[in-house]
Each structure stands twice: as C-alpha cells, then as structure tokens.
Design goal:
The chain has one domain: 3-Layer(aba) Sandwich (Rossmann fold), CATH 3.40.50. Helices cover about 55% and strands about 15% of the residues. It contains 7 helices and 6 strands, in the order E-H-H-E-H-H-E-H-H-E-E-E-H. The protein has a 6-stranded mixed β-sheet with strand order 3-2-1-4-6-5, sandwiched between helices. A hairpin with a 2-residue loop joins strand 5 and strand 6. It is globular, with a radius of gyration of 15 Å.
Length: about 150
C-alpha cells in the first residue's frame, strides 16, 4: 500500500512538537516499508519552511533534514495536472491550495493513504484516504495497517 506523508508528520519526526506526537510520528514512519512511502516535493518545501521559521533551525540544518528525507524515500514532483486537480479540490471541497496539491499529487502517485492532521480524517478523494495518525481512535485503514505490522 503506497502511503504519502504530509509535512506535519515529518516535522514531528524531526522533534518539532509535543513529545507524544513526535514519538508516534517516528513509530508510524518506521512501520511503513521504505518502498511504500511517497513524499510530494511540496511537503519537503513546507518542512524546510517549518524548520527555519517555527523551529528556528539554521538553513543548513533544515537543508540537510529535507535532503535526508528525500534520500530516504521516493519524492514526486508537482505536475500541471496535479495543480489543476488541486484547483478543483479548492473549489469543490474548500481545501487550502497547498493541502489540496499534496492530496492531488498523492492521488497521481496511486497512494492509498495520506497521513496528515491537517485535513478531515476519513476524507477520500480519487482513492486516497486522509488519515490522521495522531488520533486516539484510529481510522480502520491505519488500524489494520498497524495490526498487520505488529
């Protein structure tokens, strides 16, 4: 199952945020087979911004973090088709453009899940289901994923 990760999951995995979310983000990422992870380049750009602006990291440290994620997992570029789909998501579902773009790229990459806390848990679009991995009550797709992997 291909799984796309949003910025907040990576930021927590970098230690930005409360202890419980940081720990859980690292656990979730560790459970996903490397070949199943998809990182839209939009996510890496947002992560870089979060690390510099919110966490006040030096640019070189933020660069290294983003590049490390890109080295570890498959990255995918934004296409014009994905941007047009994002425009439709904004119009039809009132999403923010950058969240919509991540969802559209995830759909292009045939992901089954998009892990994020920024969109409505359980929202499904073009085969991609949005799942918030930080909720106490887990969505059935993520629960079965965790159960299958111990």
């Amino acid at each position: 199952m291909r799984i796309s990760l949003d910025t907040n999951v990576l930021a927590y995995a970098e230690g930005i945020g409360d202890e419980d979310r940081c720990r859980l983000a690292r656990q979730v990422i560790a459970l996903i087979p490397v070949d199943d992870v998809v990182l839209p380049v939009q996510v890496l750009g947002e992560l870089h911004r979060v690390l510099i602006r919110k966490a006040r990291w030096q640019a070189s440290r933020a660069n290294n973090a983003a590049l490390s994620w890109a080295d570890a997992f498959f990255t995918c570029d934004t296409t014009w088709q994905a941007m047009k789909s994002a425009f439709d998501l904004v119009s039809d579902h009132k999403l923010q453009i950058w969240d919509a773009l991540i969802l559209a790229v995830s759909a292009e990459q045939m992901c089954r899940l998009l892990l994020t806390e920024d969109l409505q848990n359980g929202f499904t679009w073009r085969g991609v289901t949005v799942v918030n991995p930080f909720l106490t009550t887990r969505h059935p797709l993520i629960q079965s994923f965790f159960t299958d992997r111990g």
